[in-house]
Amino acid sequence: MPGIVKERLFTPGPTPLLLEAQLRALTMTLHHRTDAFRQLMRETLDNLRYYFNTKNDIVVFSSSGTGAMEGALSNLLSPGERVLIGTAGKFGERWVELAKAYSIETVVVEAPYGHPVPIDQMKKYLETSGPFRAVLIQATESSTGVRNDVETLGKAVAQMPDCCFVVDAITGLGTTDLRPDEWGIDIMIGGSQKATMIPPGLAFASISEKAARTMEKSKLPRYYFDYTKERKSLAKGESSYTPATSLVVCLHGALNYIKELGRENLIANAALLAEATREASLALGLTNFAVSSPANAMTSINAPAGIESTKIVKALKSQFGVILTDGQGSMKGHMFRIAHLGYYDFLDLVAVLGALEIVLQKAGHKVELGSGVRAAQNVYLRHSS
Q1: Where are the domains of the chain?
Q2: Please, are residues 16 and 342 in contact by the beta-carbon 8 Å criterion?
Q3: Given a cut of 80, is residue 385 above it in pLDDT?
Q4: Cβ atoms within 10 A of the Cβ of 221, count?
Q5: Among 236, 336, 348, 370, which residue's beta carbon has the most beta carbons within 10 A?
């Protein structure tokens, strides 16, 4: 057996790191209360607006994306108010858990794992079961690989002046066409360890004027995750508290790269890899877990009958250094996920598919070697002709 095995991340977060941004962070030392850092922060915020595809203000926190999710609730809601939640996986369920932590009454529209949230049902609740102060959903559900129709839902919420639309786009940004200003997304949330190609530790949230007005009346407690306070500080190029300066420098470099590449091209790259992976899985005699409305951020694939996905994930890691994610919760052992968000190219995909073919064959699943790779190549050729 070969003696060298390189580890390669194919997880939907953290994702492979952009080397240029990492090197920049290692060579820059900035104090956060200086003009140099203020200038860098202002440029970063401008580039975040480009990345988010919005004219709205954006706040940045030193936290995981969950911190910004919690902040969205605590900044918008008051005791006694209600929220409508659409959930189609583990991260939709996190909205429910966060609301419960703040004793917020919830109405939940739930889709089976592998299916998108039924937006018509959510619209019906909006029309008949209100009032709601906020509607909460994921753009893409990374635990199942499903994309939700946030455009249709956002345009419905936009008709309600006292209700805000909050979208967890942590894996949707950089992989999905999102238009917050057109679709009425009042708060949209992202995280650094996804398509921005830098380490975990930063969370971002865009804030519409509608959301800003709602926050002025909100009565739930908050301190660190105070969107209004952070928005005012960042308008001066500062954060309210000590920021993760090295990560901000990383983000600045990564967003410059994304702007040069083009947001649309970053999204198209993820879409190409996702389509190629879905076609490859079928060619290998597998089935895709996301039966409708699959996301571009990652592809969820059912394990073959009689073979646990956990075994596939472990074999890929031990034999080839390929790091995939198993299913979460009740999905563990039944499916695995291959990520496409951020710093991946087509050759990365060819490598993981080739390794997957060998692992499947050794595990007892009948595979024609090269069939998955060939299917992916055909998708590439279709899009490059």
Answers
A1: 8-15+263-384, 19-261
A2: yes
A3: no
A4: 9
A5: 336
How far is it, in rounded angstroms, from Cα 14 to Cα 64?
11
Asked if 205 and 59 touch (Cβ cutoff 8 Å), the reply is yes
Which DSSP string corresponds to 340-382? -SSS--HHHHHHHHHHHHHHHHHTT----TTHHHHHHHHHHHH
To the question of domain 8-15+263-384 being in CATH 3.90.1150.10, the answer is yes
Check residue 288 and report its DSSP letter.
Answer: B
CA-atom Rg of the chain in angstroms: 21
Structure tokens, 368: 């024609």
Phi, psi for residue 350 in degrees, rounded to 5: -60, -40
DSSP state of 294: B
Is cis: bond before 180, omega within 30 of 0?
A: no
Euclidean distance between CA atoms 247 and 51, whole angstroms:
17
**HEC profile of 301-349:** EECCCCCCHHHHHHHHHHHHCEECEECCHHHCCCEEEEECCCCCCHHHH
pLDDT digits (tens, 9 = 90+) for 152-178: 999 999 999 999 999 999 999 999 999
The H-assigned helical ranges of 13-164 are: 19-27, 35-52, 65-76, 90-101, 119-128, 150-157
State how far the Cα of 271 lies from the Cα of 267, in Å rounded to an integer: 6
Tokens 């018509």, located at residue: 120
In terms of Cβ atoms closer than 10 Å to its own Cβ (0-12, 13-18, 19+), residue 162 is: middle
Q: How far apart are CA 350 and CA 81, in angstroms?
A: 50
Model confidence at 21, in pLDDT bands (50, 70, 90)?
Answer: confident
Residues 6+ apart with CB under 8 A from 12: 142, 171, 194, 297, 298, 325, 337, 339, 341
Give the whole-angstrom CA distance, residue 46 versus residue 231.
13
Distance CA 211, CA 186 (A): 6
